[in-house]
Structure formats: structure tokens, C-alpha cells
Amino acid sequence: MSNRLIAIGDIHGCSTALKAILTAIDPRPDDTIVTLGDYVDRGPDARGVVELLIDLSKRTHLVTILGNHEEMMLKVLRGEQAYQDWLKFGGVETLESYGFDGDLNFLPPEHLEFFESLVDYYVEDNFFFTHASYDPYLPFDQQQGDLLRWYSLRDGIPPKHISGATAIVGHTASQNGEVLDAEHLLCIDTFCYGGGYLTALDVRKLAIWQVCKDGYLR
Question: What pTM was computed for the model?
Fold first, then answer.
């Protein structure tokens, strides 16, 4: 068991907020930090976010989950999806942060390796982590990507998972900056890029850190 099990919600290019919240958390080598996806798009510094996370992975046990925005970006880079949809959902900001010059091979090798290593979910103790949601009736290894990355909790909060574990998710932004607590599910996307906060949660102690996009603690 790790010393602390901490989740960080949707970052969306807010590198200043990420740096500040990591300073507040002060990660230790025996912590596990789970980032819930959506590192890129909408905010100004996707590249800086990825650099911070790569550095963090060398100092603690970091689990990085795949968000719908990373899924879109990777499909564009692989030629599996037209770029227009990605651009209108924030891809322009990501391309600008990487100094895009028309070449779709814009990711440094270490960054591409980072994106290709992202996972669908993570389970530890009586908690599980996904980007968006889950099917309450299927085992974790049978979950569908659309639910894990795209489902909005505004369409309904799923029942407790058959495992009995508590879900920690992001994706559905709480524009008032408050964590959505449904007891068996906590959503910690608190709208950092749009004027809310970046939220980190110590899931065992239910301790919360929040930082605005300019890096000030709430």
C-alpha cells in the first residue's frame, strides 16, 4: 500500500496550476498520484503540463489515465480522425504550445511515449479511477472506451460499481469549483481552465487541495 493515494482532476494545459498544486502536495517517493486525463487542449500550456508530469513520474509512483482529449489528439496524429473536431475542442491551444508548423510529427519522442503509455483505468484498495465514468455492471477489464472517456455525469450518475469500490472521476466540469460527491462516486473536474480550480484529492483522508489557473491556493 502506498503512503498516500492522490487523484488530480482535469488539467487542460494549466501548467501554472499543476506546478502549484504539486508544490502544495509535496509528492513523496512512496505516494501514488493518479492523474485523471485531459492534460491537453483549452488551456495555454499543454507542453508544459506534459513536461511536469514526466518529471513527476521520476519522483513518485505516477499513474496517468487517458482522457477524451488525448484520445482525439492521438487519433488525429495516427490519421484515424479528421483534425477539425479536435481543433474545435481545444486542439489549437495544444498545437500552439508545441510551436506547430504544419508537421503532425510535432511531439518530442518523450512526449509521444508519455501519451502512448496512458491507461484506461486504475484500481487500488477500495477505489477505482477513470476519466469520465463506467459501466456499473461490468468488470474493469471489460469496460467500454466511450463510457470511460466520454460519458457526461449530467446525463445521470451511474450506480455503485459491482466491485463495491468508490469511483474517482473527472471529465464533467463543475463550474462552481466544488467537488461532486455522490458518496460512491466523486468527480474532481472543477473547471480549472475556465475560471474554476484544479483539484487534488487524497482519497483515503478526503483531503482536498485546490488551485486556480494562476497558481493561487484556494
Answer: 0.97
